[in-house]
Amino acid sequence: MERNEIKDILETLFFITDTPVSIDKLKEIFAGNSFVNEELLKDLVNELVQEYSNRPVELREVAGGFQFSTRPHFSQYVRKLFKERTTLRISTSALETLSIIAYKQPITRAEIEDIRGVEVTNVLETILERKLVKIVGRKETVGRPLLYGTTTDFMRYFGLKNLNDLPSLEELNIDQPNDPTTGERLQSEEGEGEQASEQNEETQ
Asked: How far is 37 from 187, CA to CA, in rounded Å?
């Protein structure tokens, strides 16, 4: 198999997928081909990243993998094409709860409530349904409560390569400690600070 052919296959896979594709997944796809190894795959992916660096569509590393996405400059046109499908709206209370989980995970519901000072059962159900968080296990304590953590979708919505890309607490506005988000992907439904999640802008 020629190097250029492998590169064409990679480009095809990134074009067709609606979720980020990791290097490990690519290794599985090319398993059995002795010519293809991890180093070659990384080299070819990097070449594609460079080739698309000056195009309207870019190949981005996000959520532990790679995926084509449109650039923010064209977001208004993508939004018009897909209308409501592009926007994920979330309440301020849900956004605050999501922020706590992102920075304190794995964390139990009771621990979240201790930080927020309010009951969060309904909020947790909402962000679980939207696949922004997931159950990651049980805490080894009395009652073995469920532990919650963020998902791959969470990283996609916020454009994070991994959780290490979260801004440090010191970088956040101290007047809004529970709202570390700075992107345009999540939109509050409760007044000020509205932010929009352009999911399809990242996946189209």
From this structure: 42
